[in-house]
Amino acid sequence: MENKTSKYFKYAIGEIILVVIGILIALQINNWNQNRLNSSKETAILADIHREFIQNRKQLDSVIGEHRTVYESCHKIISLFPITSKPEPEVLDSLSHHLWWSYGGITFNPSQTSINALESTASFDIIKNDTLRDFLISWNDLVTDYQEEELLSRSHIWDQYDPYMSKHFDWNFNFKDERNNFQALQTLEFEYMVKGRFDLMEQILESSGELKKVQETLDQIIELSKTNANN
């Protein structure tokens, strides 16, 4: 009986060990398959992110170009202050050109499809690179902070700048039209409006540092998504 009992326990222990080994092998295979699926999914997501942020970078470069045009036109107008009661024709031509380009109002509105998809499915953890994941998580807040300055500038245009200009000058700043109020060019209010546009552009492009953060983050996301996606 003792021999039979001993053999039974040995057999039972052997069976248990085999079952445990089988479970561990199954779990390992399942983990391997899951990791393979996650890796494949990550590669596809990173490829989407890479393409989308390349386009976002192109859009941002275009927006910055528009802002610089406004900045430089305002700077040129300011260099003409104070404007005399009888400006020379070349001064009027310069004012006409640069006042037209002093408006701007364009804003950076990047595509957020890939990041929104990650947020809606709580899938940020699928991104293995910690640095890239942190950049993606903070991206929306970073863009929002930057856009606040652009929206402030646009509000200044439509709430103050354009109402003043439309009161005194024609739509195209055609200073050959005698109906333009050339005396308005000599006022402190006119100078204040132009300097206000200049200061807002300087804040966007240089002073606040928000634009630089967006540019650096964009470049990092493009580079890291390219590296990880092997594109």
Number of domains: 1
- Runs with pLDDT <50, length 5+? none
Q: What portion of residues belong to β-strands?
A: under 5%
How many helical stretches?
6
Question: How would you describe this protein?
Answer:
The structure is a single chain. With 231 residues, the chain is mostly helical. The protein has one domain (2-229). 77% of the residues lie in helices and 0% in strands. The chain has helices at residues 2-79, 89-100, 113-120, 130-168, 188-207, 210-229. Helix 1 packs antiparallel against helix 5 (188-207). The longest helix is centred in the first third of the chain and has 78 residues, at 2-79. The chain is rod-shaped, with a radius of gyration of 32 Å. The mean pLDDT is 89.
Question: What is the compact description of this entry?
Answer:
The protein has 231 residues and is mainly alpha-helical. The chain has helices at 2-79, 89-100, 113-120, 130-168, 188-207, 210-229.
Compile the SSE list and pairings.
Layout: H1 2-79, H2 89-100, H3 113-120, H4 130-168, H5 188-207, H6 210-229
Helix pairs in contact: 1-2, 1-5, 1-6, 4-5, 4-6
Output the keywords.
231 residues, mainly alpha, 6 helices
